[in-house]
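Progress report, Aim 2. The chain analyzed during this reporting quarter is listed below.
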Amino acid sequence: MIPKYNEIEIPVLKELQNGKVMRAKDLREPLAKYFQLTEEELLARHPSGNIEIFLDRILWALSYLFIAGLVEKPQRGDYKISEKGLSMLSSCTDEEIIEFVKGKVSARRSQKATSHKQTNSSSEMKEEDEQTPEEGLLDSYDRIKKNIQSQILTTILSKKPQEFERLVVQLLQTLGYGGEVKNSGIVTKLSNDGGIDGVIKEDIFGFNHISIQAKRYALDNKVGRNEVQSFVGAVAGTPSKKGVFITTSDFSKGAIDFVESLNGTPTIILINGQQLTEYIYDYGFGLQTEKVLKVMKMDMDFWDAMDNE
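Predicted structure tokens for the chain:
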């Protein structure tokens, strides 16, 4: 498991205690060995893809050690242990050093607004303290996203089933299915849908198309094998033999196992409520952009081209 930045602080100090000047990238390999990280863990990146998670946490550990006065920066990007750091390594326990750094960093931070209420549990606060600012930002984004996804499902469940059928047809078109085909999405008539709620035409003449089944179910009402099996039978009778079953709830294990046993004949895709709201959110379907945050990082090539003092 990739260690938190505060778990990296002491090993960083011990790597620097010989007095050498090192950069974050120089610490990457010895610390990876210390924590026995796998190659996959070592190369894992944040969802943004900008930087490796482990290297990012090393950088934040160094930053906080610098704020606490335990390391110095002879020049930009270089780190060296300070006299204070050497003194604390020899006279303090690891826990005492970590608490010292935490206290210094807390003193430097501006007081947080009332977004974190006093009712927050100690475990929640501890988890926050273990995150780097970028991880905290990503965690906040994830909480906002999940809240909106919950609102999406609640709103869908408040609409008529026919509206859900129209919605999923439009969503598949938004995802790119139907391409440039005019009027590619069709919602079938209720009286004669043959077990198929909608169709996406993939060519002008409709030789290739995707059959759609849409079930607007309460969250605790899973779609069972029998319903999926009926849909598979309907799709098997179409020329393309391709179908998408979408529900606001989830699928039973029996339904999932049945689809997996088909081995692509016909080809059936199951999309549950979680996946549905993921698509809606990620493609901005029926949503508006409220705010865009632009996170910058240093262009190291630009700054390294300048002469140092």
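The first strand starts at residue 71 and ends at 72. The two ends are 40 Å apart (CA to CA). These observations will guide the mutagenesis work planned for the next reporting period.
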